[in-house]
Specification:
Layout (H helix, E strand, L loop, with lengths): L13 E2 L10 E2 L11 E4 L2 E4 H10 L8 E4 L12 E4 L1 H10 L7 H12 L4 H8 L3 H8 L8
Antiparallel strand pairs: 1-2, 3-4, 5-6
Length: 147
């Protein structure tokens, strides 16, 4: 994945399941160690692999203020039928709507119980390995309001 790659070269690292549009097309190349997402470099520019996929399939370049949303919530999926452009807020709305926060419902209930027992947000955050702000958002029902 060097500087001479072309955008279409991204497909050699994707399992396209014989073109089945109903399943996720998984990235088979290396993942970024920090966020476990697929990245691909074209002409020295490193971007998420699925960004090159949606651009080559639609012919529409990603705008600077746009993110790529996954309808399947699979961060290594590169199926263009599972991808769309949107705003950061659209993506946050998806996350909340689909309960895609990474914390199981049982943990949310346990956090709420500890909050009711007057444990501090910092104590609970440390216990579950999340930020204090995550606990505050749960407490204030900015996140996980229906749990």
């Amino acid at each position: 994945m060097n500087r001479s790659n072309q955008p279409s070269f991204v497909y050699q690292y994707i399992n396209m399941h014989k073109g089945d549009k109903n399943v996720c097309w998984e990235w088979t190349g290396p993942l970024n160690k920090k966020d476990e997402r697929p990245y691909f470099t074209v002409k020295g520019k490193r971007r998420p692999a699925y960004a090159y996929v949606i651009e080559t399939c639609t012919g529409i370049p990603q705008k600077e203020d746009e993110v790529i949303r996954h309808s399947c919530d699979n961060p290594i999926c590169c199926n263009p039928d599972h991808l769309s452009f949107g705003s950061h807020q659209d993506n946050m709305n998806d996350m909340k709507e689909r309960d895609r926060h990474g914390l199981p419902k049982t943990v949310i209930r346990a956090v709420r119980k500890l909050l009711s027992e007057n444990k501090t947000h910092g104590e609970i955050a440390k216990l579950y390995g999340v930020s204090r702000e995550t606990i505050t958002a749960i407490n204030n029902k900015r996140a996980h309001a229906d749990k």
